[in-house]
Amino acid sequence: MANHVQVKNGIENSRQFFNLKEMSHIVKVLDQNQKVHSDILQAIGNTPLVKLTNIPKQEGIKCDMYAKCEFLNPGGSVKDRIANRMIVDAEKKGLLVAGKSVIIEPTSGNTGIGLALAAAVRGYRCIIVLPEKMSDEKVNTLIALGAEIIRTPTEAAWDSPDSNIMVARRLAKEIPDAVLLDQYNNPCNPLAHYDGTAEEILWSLDDDIDMVVIGAGTSGTISGIGHKIKERCPKCIVVGVDPYGSILAQPEDLNKTDVQIYEVEGIGYDFLPNVLDRTVIDKWIKTEDKASLNMARRLIKEEGLLCGGSSGSAMWGAIQAAKTLKEGQKCVVLLPDNIRNYMTKFISDQWMEVRDFKPTVKRNLQWWENPLRKDIVQPIQTIQHTSTPAEALSMLRKSNAPVLAIVDDKGCITGVFTADNARKRIANLMGSTAEPLQNFSIKKYYKVDVADKPTLGLISRILDIAPFIVVTQSDLLHNEKPLGVVTADDLLLGITAGQANGN
Fold first, then answer.
1. Can 79 be counted among the known catalytic residues?
2. 79-92 and 110-122 helices, crossing angle to 10°
């Protein structure tokens, strides 16, 4: 077994990685296609390896670059492989019984979709626990597959009682016949890639690969592929891609400590999963949201690969790493998931613009580049975070405002309260106005800071995809205080009044 170091609370503890070579293996025949599959789970894997042409040429890459198109798996991601493998293994061990057992899993979404897909086919109740950051498309797909969804705060650390991991562990203890498959610690995670993904890559390129670049999430993908490729092609350089804000890369001082939350989904963590084996990773590359998401859009537009944001991270990292390779050498980059999960996120120009990942579109309108004026911003009511939902609803009625800003003891905004969100919680989640106000707080909302001098054009673009915009002012310590709110009515009245006055 490979030696490995686990870090917890800054303390390193030695442990050993799984001996994948000595485990029970499931390897498909790769040079034959079945005419008919018995169910959709049999179509998992054997994804195409596609040579990239346009982007490598534009970036001055001399080697041959290939994309492993994992987004073409039935559930839309590389995680279909481990989901099915974990379930098959648990059934063989008698841990899962169809029609009786309940599958519970914390996930960033893709493993959840893979498990929900397999659960639908194999007859299991499935409960998925995922952070609020994850896209609505993932949630809607999970619901369509019959899974039950529980959302947790994005900002909760992995060992917080409120995190998706800890909530899933608690539910697994409370619900009869529940089984936590635990992708972070389950050896079937890297084993699925050791037996499947790696074998396919090696077969496609006749065991002749100079570099493989893979994003690190749970890290089972890179660990499993890395182990198999190192056995068969020792010269191959294994490159891990990790976003700033995550601690997976080694050494940790590569991280930007001021980055806390990043937009790219499916990669990076604030702890080291047991399925990560850093010993097989030769090089780490850190990525940022802007470069990653724009590269994902380039993969779609310039290579025709309908992939997701983490694919952009992997590709951006691959471009940096492949600059060291020469003509005739081969680099493989793994593209983990597809476009479906992000139609309202980085695929949306407005979503990219408000985060400054893309320049705001310019329109030939007299008012478009004008700065946001005070007369367009209506006052926003604030409510203390210690208040009750009933008090918040009463304040909304009296103020006739679209939103309340929830503030802490220093007057800094911690979230917003809306009647619509309260209705959804009470109607769909059976919440109660007796709960803490924090349970009704919306953490994901659109805002602009007056220090950034937002234009009316930007405000208009945001209102294309949001019912309101909170206007804030930040101090040197990045504490945000709410100043007001802008709705479509406010902007419309503001620009039409300006046109009447000749502005």
1. yes
2. 50
pLDDT, residue 260, reads 66
Domain 79-180: give its CATH code: 3.40.50.1100
Which residue do the tokens 């400054």 mark?
Answer: 356
Buried b (16+ CB within 10 A) or exposed e, 295-314: bbbbbbeebebbbbbbbbbb
pLDDT band at 141 (very low <50, low <70, confident <90, very high): very high
Q: CB neighbours of 387 closer than 8 A, spacing ≥ 6?
A: 437
Q: Which of 8, 62, 79, 447 is catalytic?
A: 79
> Would residue 83 be called left, alpha or beta, if left means φ above 0 and alpha means ψ between -120 and 50 degrees?
alpha
Q: Which tens digits make up the pLDDT trace of 410-421?
A: 999 999 999 998
What is d(CA 473, CA 471) in angstroms, rounded to the nearest whole number?
7
Q: What is the CATH number that goes with domain 349-500?
A: 3.10.580.10
Question: What is the reported pLDDT for 8?
Answer: 43
**Residue 44: pLDDT band by 50, 70, 90 thresholds?**
very high
Task: Kindly write down the DSSP assignment for every residue of 292-315, as one continuous string.
Answer: HHHHHHHHHHHH---B-HHHHHHH
Q: Are 102 and 179 in contact (CB under 8 A)?
A: yes
Question: HSE of 305 in the Cβ direction (CA atoms, 13 Å)?
Answer: 34
CA angle 291–320–57, rounded 5-degree value: 90
Residue 100 is encoded by which pair of tokens? 């009786």
- Distance from C-alpha of 298 to C-alpha of 296, rounded to nearest angstrom: 5
The answer to whether 440 touches 431, Cβ cutoff 8 Å, is yes
- Asked if domains 79-180 and 349-500 share a fold, the reply is no
